[in-house]
Amino acid sequence: MSKKQKRTLGRILVTAGLLAALWFVPARGWLKLCLYLVPYLLIGYDILRKAALGIVHGQVFDENFLMATATVGAFALAVASGSGDYLEAIAVMLFYQIGEWFQSYAVGRSRRSIAQLMDIRPDYANIETDGKLERVDPDAVAVGTLITVQPGERVPIDGVVAEGRSTLDAAALTGESLPREVGEGDEVLSGCVNLTGLLRLRTTKEAGESTAAKILDLVENASARKSRSENFISRFARVYTPAVCGAALVLAVLPPLALLALGQGPRWSVWLYRALAFLVTSCPCALVISIPLSFFAGIGGASRAGMLVKGSNYLETLSQVRQVAFDKTGTLTQGVFQVVGVHGATMPQEQLLEYAALAESASSHPISKSLQKAWGGEPDRDRVRDIQERGGNGVLATVDGRTVAVGSERLMAALKVPCEPCQQTGTVVHVAVDGSYAGHILIADVVKPQAGEALRQLKAAGVEKTVMLTGDNARTAQAVARELGVDQVHSDLLPADKVAKVEELLAALPRGKKLAFVGDGINDAPVLSRADVGIAMGALGSDAAIEAADVVLMDDDPAKLAQAIRISKKCLGIVYQNIAFAIGIKLLCLALVAVGAANMWLAIFADVGVMVLAVLNAMRCLKTPK
Question: pTM, whole model, 2 decimals?
């Protein structure tokens, strides 16, 4: 509990104690007024101050103004009538503060819950100096520095293992419970906990640019992007508050004047009391507080499960997703390509593989890496010159003085080199040397074991159609689609073709339904930006993914997508429940107060009680559905 919450709780308890004591004090007249002003000012001074500042700055119509007007008016009414009944005014302010404290506690609890599970910002980094470890501020560690991470410590900065082997707990980053094995050459992300062995890491980023820092920044700033529901509440409050103030004024003045015109007693005090009770009842605290809290809790719950949602607007849009388009490689498949066949036409298989691996040696594409791995040699860059990337088609390079082309059938067609078809399913990489066809290499990707179940879960979550967009050939794409149960396939697509295809899918969608695109967040950045919701899967630590995507799934489990949609639907359901409940109860109580069927105590329940119930309901968003 924060110091401010403790102070507020202390004021609540002292005020309640003073009211209990004053009940037994036989004071009357001005003495009674002065005695009751003490607990009133104790519990309400901050509300009165905020109301006065709002009036000075031209921001009149808010909950502070309503509470101040109603309670001061109740005091004035008690003095004018001589009833001496000041308890209602103090009770209104007391119960309002109780509701505010409860709301503050709920938000604080939500923040602490997220902070504990996202406590990934390390306090120090170990640098070895003269054989001793020295703790330094991570912000002071330059890129390329050798740092030591001992067992039980959290990795402070992104780096590559220079020495040692260990297992890492990445639960705070990905939501995964299983530890990860790392050794020399493996990338290690900040925020992971080193479980077993001593690791020496060569840092690859500054502390402020590390994965942990970016994740925390995303979570902390997600509330800046408001959903339509939140914007509706803001617009509603701007119109609603002046309207109810005007209605209260009419209620205080018009009925007495009408009674006076009919020759009856105006009963000013009765109608003024009803107007004051009307003001207390009208306070829209339940909506203003519970709706943002629902989204905050939903985003926090998702982040704990390894899903970073960059704003409540994206969380809301997820609930409306009815079509999901997937990239294939690295999303539905593992992206771990293996050479399963080498078919030489005019040169030996070993030489064909060597030429292809050398030509692709400057590329980080999975296919390039699989060629180099299958060859097994160490690329000699002196043997390779004039490397030219042909976007989405392949590579041209000079290897040992010979012109080598490695890529798809489109590349061979562009070079006017006739190529031989391959009868097996997989990605076919054709090779031409000095303008003549040399053979082809067959590479196969492995479907993720959980991908099929993930697509079935999406259908259960309300997704009506799944689409696969891939640059791979039609036969390979169709084989993967049949295995996983994808509804529609578009193959042989360049990056620009994927954007055009997404445009077509968006145009065909019925109104109110949304399209999500799921990709690796690097090659698919334009498509991620164009879809209603761009989702980067398996993109932990990728700057491009975090920049381009609206939602980042911290591991490569496609089942997290269905869970994200379920979280979104649960959160939106709770938001709509709170809106309907709060507005419905408010309207009913306002009607009862206006006709004299309810008093100030019902107004207190309508204001504070509804807010407490709505906040309790909003806190359910913290618990994420599986």
Answer: 0.65
